Amino acid sequence: MSALKRVKVAFIIFNVLFLGLGLTAIGYVAWNLSQLPNSSVFLSGKFIFSYSLLGIGFVICLIGLIGCIGGLSSSTCCLKAFIAMTTILLFVDIGVVIAGYMEQSQLQCCAFSNTIAEYSGTPPPSCYKDAKNTSSIYVSLCKESMKDWVKGKIPIWASVIAVAAFVQILSSILSCVLLTKIQSSMRVSQAPAESNPSRPRPRQSKHNGLNF
């Protein structure tokens, strides 16, 4: 097996893992949705982390599909699109982590450092255990709750982020290597045609009359 084929196989395997990660994220959100009493609760706008994870799941599936197509067909356009989308996804992952930290319904907190100062005396409904009962406001601040929540789940977050970053970075490296090899092979295949152009056939002159 040539070096190009080995890189192709490795690249396709990592894109299959990409598809698996995307489907896992979508399945996780779907499982959470099945635990809710009705779909209107999910559409209420309070599940920021779940919305972000669902969107990233679809994007990961799309990236994995583009990568598989690019690897199987040796399409330089698909590979370039894969590199760009993977790079953007790395920054999106960071945004999802931040969104997860700011999920008030999980942290059970209100405001970041000072409830009254931040909300001008009128906290939003997310600051209450029960939006209809104004006496059920969360007394803990999000700043402290975030610290406790992150400290308690550092191993989980570290593992998830490490795996996702490893797969994305390694896939990007493989796609760059594959793109370079494909472009190199294309240049090599075009070189003989340029160095040995077809010679024009000699013109045959017609002589009229007799030669003495």
TrEMBL record:
Record InterPro entries: Tetraspanin/Peripherin
Cellular compartments annotated: Membrane
Keywords: Membrane, Transmembrane, Transmembrane helix
Ranges for region Disordered: 190-212
GO-annotated cellular components: membrane
Membrane-spanning segments: 12-31, 51-69, 81-102, 156-179
Pfam families in UniProt: Tetraspanin
KW Transcription regulation (keyword) present: no
Broad class of the protein's primary localization: membrane
Membrane topology label: Multi-pass membrane protein
Protein name (database record): Tetraspanin
